[in-house]
Write a structure and sequence with these properties.
Leucine-rich Repeat Variant, two-stranded antiparallel sheet, 420 residues, mainly alpha, 25 helices
Length: 420
């Protein structure tokens, strides 16, 4: 395995992916850090000119649909859809069905429609995932809603990236995706006329084109407070890892008033999760500690309790694929009272389901009854039913009950969570 120091030196010497040729992009994919790999995949779909062919072959992009880095999977799907690689429809659709990351799944569903899939079928996949349930200490619960990826949120993101101006009458299944190139040109023209149009900025960001990163990031330095939060959201939707430094600065801001600070850190956390770079795990883990020890104890902290920031930080660790921080997330499995929304155990369960670290879940089975019962639900959601079956006779009544509920979800009338 390449050492961290050697990789850092190689990354420093590597060309910017946005200006790299096909050979350099391939080398970055093979040995680059997660942020450079994500950028390399995104750059692979930029418009070829003259006699230049595609910067990465379709087969290479298809292989990246199974990459361990969520941002790479998301970007590979986007690149295939943007290029209109119709031969990739079946693998994109298969990848979308097994995907557990919400942002990557959305990119795959959109790509599938651009490659010929029926939009209503793609939305049904997203809707099913947005309604996913896991068995908990307290019975079956909807975990995507707690993680900020419920049906309403996903529907808004779906409308924005497919055709934001369509008369779909609020029905996601009625959407018919338009040509993304024509849509992007129109959005850029609209923003040139009115640079402060926040809705149009988000519409443009949802198209994920790498050339739009600078345009979006530039708004951060000239925007007011409300628009500043929208810019953070837009950077997450655009998905470019070059935004991580700016978002980290927002996340670490300690010198702002509580109301603005809570909203900014929440927006930055969501955006960091959506970019899908696991290297943000350390930043988010530290932010979790800071939020609990400092910000929630300040005057005005009631805003943070009513509008929980730690819940989105936990969710972001799962969405960004921060496997190294899985034990940090598992520490929130027994938390049923840390926020006005009923604690942090639901976003923790959803994040652990996305991370799929079996060893951490099995460790939690040996912890307190609340942690163990909630770990049972995650294991069942991942399709690991054999160890759950064995826990039906667990002497801890709470764990045995959770195992029963989990098996009913998996084998009874309800569908298993999408991606399991």
């Amino acid at each position: 395995m390449m050492s961290t120091l050697r990789r850092a030196l190689l990354d420093r010497r590597a060309p910017a992916p946005e200006q790299a040729d096909a050979g350099a992009l391939s080398r970055l994919l093979g040995r680059g850090s997660p942020d450079l790999r994500i950028r390399a995949v995104r750059a692979s779909a930029r418009e070829a000119t003259g006699t230049d062919g595609p910067l990465l072959e379709v087969g290479t992009l298809v292989g990246l649909l199974s990459d361990p880095v969520p941002g790479v999977r998301r970007s590979a799907a986007w690149a295939l859809g943007w290029r209109g690689a119709s031969e990739a429809l079946d693998p994109v659709w298969s990848a979308a069905r097994r995907e557990r990351n919400d942002t990557a799944r959305l990119a795959m569903a959109v790509a599938a429609t651009r490659l010929g899939a029926e939009p209503a079928r793609a939305w049904d996949l997203l809707d099913q995932a947005a309604r996913r349930r896991l068995a908990t200490f307290y019975g079956p619960r909807q975990v995507a809603e707690a993680a900020g990826a419920g049906p309403d949120v996903m529907a808004r993101r779906w409308f924005r990236v497919t055709d934001p101006d369509a008369d779909h009458q609020g029905d996601p299944a009625r959407v018919r995706p338009v040509d993304p190139r024509a849509l992007r040109e129109g959005l850029i023209a609209s923003l040139e006329r009115d640079p402060e149009d926040r809705s149009r900025l988000l519409d443009l960001a949802a198209l994920q084109h790498p050339d739009d990163h600078d345009r979006i990031a530039a708004r951060k330095w000239v925007s007011g407070r409300r628009e500043s939060h929208v810019v953070c959201e837009a950077l997450g939707e655009n998905g470019d890892p070059r935004a991580i430094a700016l978002l980290t600065k927002v996340l670490r801001a300690m010198d702002v008033d509580p109301g603005h600070g809570f909203a900014g850190r929440r927006a930055a956390s969501i955006a960091l999760g959506r970019i899908g770079d696991p290297s943000v795990g350390g930043v988010l883990a530290k932010a979790l500690v800071d939020e609990a020890h400092d910000h929630e104890g300040r005057p005005g902290a009631g805003l943070g309790i009513q509008f929980p920031v730690r819940s989105v930080m936990i969710s972001a660790l799962g969405e960004a694929g921060c496997v190294a921080q899985a034990r940090v997330v598992a520490g929130y499995l027994p938390d049923a009272s840390g926020s006005a929304l009923g604690g942090f155990y639901l976003p923790a369960m959803d994040a652990l389901w996305k991370l799929g670290v079996d060893s951490v879940l099995h460790e939690a089975l040996r912890a307190d009854p609340l942690s163990a019962a909630n770990a049972v639900g995650v294991l069942a959601g991942l399709g690991h039913l054999e160890p759950v079956q064995a826990l039906l006779q667990d002497p801890r009544a709470e764990v045995a009950a959770a195992a029963k509920h989990a098996l009913e979800l998996a084998q009874g009338g309800e569908k298993a969570p999408a991606g399991s």
